Amino acid sequence: MESLKLKSKLFYLLLIVGFSLGVVGLIGYINIQNIKRNIDTLYFSSLVPLNELNTISNTYHNDLASPIYRWSNQLLTDKQTTEKISSGLKRINQHWNIYRSHYKNTEEIPYINYADTKIQNLERYFIKVHSIIGDPNRNHPLSLSILDENIQLIHITLHTLINYEKESARYEHAVLIAQYKNALMQLTLFLGIMLILVMSLAWKIFSRIEWQQQQLIRSTETLRHLNHKLEQVSYTDSLTALYNRRYFNILFEREFKRALRSGKPYVFMMLDIDFFKQYNDTYGHLQGDIALQSVSKVLKNTLQRPGDYPFRLGGEEFGIILTDTNCEDAQIMGEKIRANINNLKIEHKGSKILPTLSISIGGICIVPTAQMGDDALIHAADTNLYVAKERGRNQVVFSNTL
């Protein structure tokens, strides 16, 4: 009787497996269709290289040739014209460098090198035009016919590249369609084989469920033990190698209770990099990560005692717990940290107070009492950090009362 019940359960389980495989096949088919649509969009709606080439071509016409024609008709001053030429050349170089940074096959290299030579020659020509227009005592006339010839030549060169990019995109699309059809066929074949294999082997596999279930229980216990060990080593921030917010929550409460028992001062500081959003906007998030690592290195090098704990609380915000110290030494340590950050001399054009990276620090040094909650200390340090920012940043504000 029990055997019949088990067989019945296994039969229903087999039906579920077959249904699941069908669902997987349907999901795979839908995903492949979505991939095809996304790739089509990538090649035919977002052709970045084509956009760069078109931008360069338009820049030659609108930012270089057109201002010179207007200058020749006395519609622009010498200064306005030379400024437009300078900005136009800079913009062309930027977009050309972006275009060249994209992947290029070996067949495309000669076209790129030829176009690069023409662009460099034309750049030298416009630099010469720039010097002629900018010279108040110019003795050399400016030939508009030569300007027309140069502009037409570069347009022809760029449009040759544009046509080549279009043809390359069409070819890549054809290759992609072939790969798509091949992948679809392989998926169908694979699912068919898997379905047959599962249907033929399922009964034999399911007959061992009871035994495997016991093994699974033992494996689960082992995995739980390993996860516990992994959790013990997961207290470090991956970017800065400082303690992370998770370990801060544990250590803050532990040290608070220890200070409560011993009657010694408890020191907590919050640090914030000044105008860090502007730093990221100016230099990019990759450089921002490097700045965070530099600040973290200063914290580790400055806080050398066993009872000093630096943390990265999140974003550009850091925390410090100091044990077995007094309030005067804690404030001195805060000033030392601030000065060491300044000594890094990390350029920060987006700062409103210094040309280099700086930090603001808010700290609290107090002997805990039973009526005092640890949240109050965090709030006090955060309030002092806010005061430091209000007073102009790049400073340390400490208090010894809540």
Order of helices and strands: HHHHHHHEHHEEHEHE
Terminal CA distance reads: 73 Å
Poorly predicted runs of 5 or more residues: none
Mean pLDDT: 83
Short description:
Helices cover 70% and strands 8% of the residues.
Layout of strands and helices, then pairs:
Elements: H1 2-44, H2 48-72, H3 78-101, H4 109-134, H5 144-206, H6 209-232, H7 245-262, E1 266-273, H8 276-283, H9 285-302, E2 308-314, E3 317-322, H10 327-342, E4 359-366, H11 374-390, E5 396-399
Parallel strand pairs: 4-5
Antiparallel strand pairs: 1-3, 1-4, 2-3
Which structural traits does this protein have?
single chain; 402 residues; Alpha-Beta Plaits; 5-stranded mixed β-sheet; 5 strands; 8% strand
Architecture overview:
It is a single chain. This protein has 402 residues and is an alpha+beta fold. It has helices at residues 2-44, 48-72, 78-101, 109-134, 144-206, 209-232, 245-262, 276-283, 285-302, 327-342, 374-390; strands at 266-273, 308-314, 317-322, 359-366, 396-399. It has two domains: 1-233, no CATH class; 245-399, Alpha-Beta Plaits. The protein contains eleven helices and five strands. Strand 4 (359-366), helix 11 (374-390) and strand 5 (396-399) form a beta-alpha-beta unit. Helix content is 70%, strand content 8%. Helix 3 packs antiparallel against helix 4, helix 4 (109-134) runs antiparallel to helix 5 and helix 9 crosses helix 10.
